[in-house]
Amino acid sequence: MSKSAKLAAVLVAFVLAVAAIASVWLYLIKYPQTAQAATSSSGEQQITMQTVGALGYGPHSTYVSYLVEQNGKWIHSTMLQVKANSDVHFTIYQYDSGSPLRNPFMDQVSGTTDGKEILNGQPVRIVNDYSDGGVGHTFAIPSMGVSVPMPGISSNAKNPCGTPAPCALSYDHNTVQFTIHVGAAGTYPWQCFVPCGLGYLIGNGGPMSTLGYMGGFLKVVA
């Protein structure tokens, strides 16, 4: 190999290395912020979230998404952090529409401390996914056996939330509350199991497979 060819090969390798480092750096700076649970006066961990039909900004503005409240502000993240060996109370405001489930098993509440969710103030064990709103999303942590269905707003809703997110409580929504107990420290993936990636194969692409939209991680720390 000639000297010029060797120099060209070295330059190509250098450019590729710089590109790889830049890609990793861009990935890291775009990694969703971790939201830490708030702590109530009784010591209970609390997480407040919302689901929206379209985020309305960013590189995937049309994606359906979760948001989480942190220090009184809504942030676009699905990275949650809680303390080990504690009860964690969730409040999720569900602004999106819904549809009947492909797997009826997913309309059942499981893994909460009392086997129920509080839906608009009423305790329920099963969400009727054939009702007008169907089921919009679920919050599920498979490794903990947690699955909580969240009904969609009515197809006749008079005041649905538009974009951009976040949505205010004045818009039509369903409020879902539940408590889970977390044990040992670790990182546990969570996600929505209702296929809602419109335009993707069987609805499981797009927001369903992009971190920060319909799934994330629950970081349990000691």
Please summarize what this structure is.
By secondary structure, this protein is mainly β.
Question: Any descriptors?
Answer:
222 residues, mainly beta, Immunoglobulin-like
Can you describe this structure?
It is a single chain. A hairpin with a 2-residue loop joins β4 (65-70) and β5 (73-75). The protein has 222 residues and is mainly beta. It has one helix at residues 3-30; strands spanning 34-36, 38-39, 45-52, 65-70, 73-75, 79-83, 86-94, 117-119, 122-124, 135-141, 146-151, 174-182, 186-191, 215-221. The protein starts with a helix and ends with a strand. It has one helix and 14 strands, in the order αββββββββββββββ. The strands form three sheets. Strands 2, 3, 4, 5, 7, 8, 9 and 12 form an eight-stranded mixed sheet that branches. Strands 1-6-14-13 form a four-stranded mixed sheet, with no helix packed on it. The protein has a single domain (33-221), classed as Immunoglobulin-like.
